[in-house]
Amino acid sequence: MSAIIDRKKILETVPQTGFFGHPKGLSTLFFTEFWERFSYYGMKGILIYYMYDRLKNGGLGLDPTTAASIASIYGALVYMSGIIGGWVSDRLLGSVKTVFYGGVLIMLGHIALAIPAGFPALIVSMVLIVLGTGLLKPNAASTVGELYDEKDLRRDSGFSIYYMAVNLGAFLAPLIVGTVGQKYNYHLGFSIAAVGMFLGLVAFSTTRKKYLGLAGSVVHNPLTPDEKKSTFMKIGLGTIGLIIILAATIPTGILNLDRFITLVSILGFLIPAWYFVMMYFSKKSTRDERSRLLAYIPLFIASIVFWAIEEQGASLLAVYADKRTQLDFGGFHILPSWFQTLNPLFIVVFAPVLASLWMKLGDRQPSTPVKFSFGLIFAGLSFIVMMAPAYFNGSHTLVNPLWLVLSYFLVVIGELCLSPVGLSVSTKLAPAAFSAQMLSLWNLSDAAAQTLNAQLVKMYDANHEVMYFGVVGLISAVLGVFLLLYTPVIKRLMRGVK
């Protein structure tokens, strides 16, 4: 469907109740995202251990620091690829079709990892999952936004429920995929992740027409026939050029792993900067929309700082759990991958609490910038508390796992203040012509954070833990206070959006 359809007509096709007081289409997106996140976090939960585990144990035998950098860059590329997904949705297919094709690519990526073919299979898998997640993730969230009227007070609560699906999948994945992967066979674990994505595709395909109506079916800014011809020619020439460059630089050593990580780290900041400039100066953006984009910039920066800490839970703290933590605790042996369940577990428990709180407060709830500032402060505290075990026990003594539990808990409180609200405000502040691409821009904050982490994790050393955790944590907390003070300015720029 290529014609622009009035938003009210779209809402008329969506059953507005039927899923905990929310539109019934939320259930379709809930279960699709649940299984997609199960597959992704199941894979991610054992990926870093697979990369640095010894060859005789079925791993790739990489250095742990290198593995952490690769994991960060991988995560960054996953979120950077959201640019592609946003563009495909807005200009070619619409959100619903883009979500489906993305899920197919993700499933194929997990199947590639399930094959014991070493580093080449890892690269193939990464390419497929990066592209697939870029197609699926921003467009699933964008479709959630289309289920509600812009002034519907259920909107933030709906995104919180949707966000709970993400974390239910992420909670179960390390327990199932992590246990199978670390106790039995990594590739068997990756195959379970593939099955998870298949189930997500089934859930989406069987309910989307009945529950979503026209939501996600509109191509908001379709290519004209002439634009299609020109665009596809540019894509083809660009692909050929990229293949030639890679063929010339990889065998000669000009492009090695360290240089690739550095290149992606630079792109992680240049791409969102270009995105802001492109949308701001577009003739399709109105004066009010430009003002809202300016309001979005400090929120975007805050998001980068937050995710820089949160995402280290799956890279640096994952290594910390394996190398620095007492895993025999209370007569029970803990697998390092199980720590990845803490973040989603706390979110599943506390997300309904905050969702209900926002609903109860209604117009009296804290503004979006205030919620973002709380997110930064709690993220900072989650690293500041990690100074204590190294300070009191030294860098050569295994630490009590409860320190990690506390750290994950604090960052989750911050995440619940920032992340679901960030999704919601991205849809509300988006210029009409760039609705899906604005969700891609939101995901780019996570990409920028992870490219930053690819460099930060190189600075971590067990002998300097107090300095590392203290500096990073304090920067986040101080920026949170600054954002709180800057809130009145941001609210004026938002032009009535709360």
TrEMBL record:
GO biological process annotation, one example: tripeptide transmembrane transport
Keyword field contains Cell membrane: yes
Protein name (Swiss-Prot/TrEMBL): Transporter YclF
Residue spans crossing the bilayer: 67-88, 100-131, 161-180, 186-204, 235-254, 260-281, 293-309, 338-358, 370-392, 398-418, 466-486
GO MF annotation: an example: dipeptide transmembrane transporter activity
Stretches assigned to the Major facilitator superfamily (MFS) profile domain: 25-488
GO CC annotations on file: plasma membrane
Cited InterPro entries: Dipep/tripep_permease, MFS_dom, MFS_trans_sf, MFS_Transporters, POT_fam, PTR2_symporter_CS
Organism, scientific name: Weizmannia acidilactici
Membrane topology, from the record: Multi-pass membrane protein
Keywords: Cell membrane, Membrane, Transmembrane, Transmembrane helix, Transport
Gene for this chain: yclF
Family from the record: Belongs to the major facilitator superfamily. Proton-dependent oligopeptide transporter (POT/PTR) (TC 2.A.17) family.
Keyword field contains Nucleotidyltransferase: no
Intracellular or extracellular location(s): Cell membrane; Membrane
